[in-house]
Task: structure prediction
Amino acid sequence: MTRSVVSRLLLAVIALFPVCFLIWHLLYPLVAGPAVLLSKQISTLLFGDLLQEVRINVDHLLVVTRYVEAGMLVDDPGDSGQRLAIDINTRLVSFAIPFYAALHFATPRTAAFSSFSFALLLLWPAVALGLTLVTAKDLIMTVGPAAVVGEQHWLQEVIFLGYQFSVLILPTVLPLVMWLLQLPKLPAFKGLFRSACIQ
Amino acid sequence: MGFFLARFVALLSLLFLLDMLSVVQRRVVEPFTAAIASVSGRLIEAFDSTVVTAGRVIRDADSGFAVSIEAGCNGVEASIVLIAAVIAFPGNWRQRAVALALGLLAIQVLNIGRIASLFYIGQSLPDVFEWAHLYVWPALIMLDVIFVFMLYLRYLERQRSPVA
Result:
């Protein structure tokens, strides 16, 4: 029984993996759009005084700074004043969504679509937070830490740490943890987690 | 059950925080990444005489194409998830040690496969390289963790209730 459940799960994940990534690729604004939009709003709120505009271009977030002159943000640019544009690939973080979708829909469960909707309500803000940390890191690297975090050097460290977390850990670990936390509650997998329940 | 989940999340958080400390990166993760690059490079060299490995860089002498093995390409994040899950789950230390030894080996075998495949994808299918490198392979490596952990759970279940 358990053997067949595990084998079927693994085969289903492998089969759904390309399907979910293809849907994510083709319907990106629908699948990841809310997360990108939320990230745009948060970035504008947090760094609005540094930015000229934040624009969404399908799967990229284009962040344009105010005029920069000799490494300082200025209101009235001289001849050498220029705006800097940061192009952020939002897929770097948002591939958490198709990865979770493959795990979710491969798992035998009832009301799979409604529970996936709830999962999206967790995934979208997490991806948005990750993208905001990527934006913050790129702003520090582009216009300098003084303009972004002022004298709060610890905040720069937090942003760099958050950036690493967002790019290296969040996209793969968050879906896995979300999925694993649900597994013991599903009837098909209760046998596997029996000893954890006994404890 | 709640105890397992709480222990898993706590261990995961602790290990990731340790992983991100600069001293751990400098003393453990970076040498480990260099070792993974070296092993991958040597393995590819054994089959392809045009490949040259120097430090973390694996390069094709003919095309000039090169890949550098960096943080995120070393399987450390996947290993941390497996370690947290196996230790958090009830079992004796012998069972855990065997699961971790085999599981970590499985992750690194697949990771070396990832490095080798990306080296050749980058040369022959450059348009696919970004997809394979940034999205598909990281998810596949994490799938490997799931496979190993599920097999471990199945093994524990068999130990508890042997078939007559």
Observations:
- Residues 112-143 of chain A form the longest helix (32 residues).
- The beta strands of chain A are 51-57, 60-69, 72-73, 82-89.
- Residues 2 and 192 of chain A are 7 Å apart (CA to CA).
- The two ends of chain A are 23 Å apart (CA to CA).
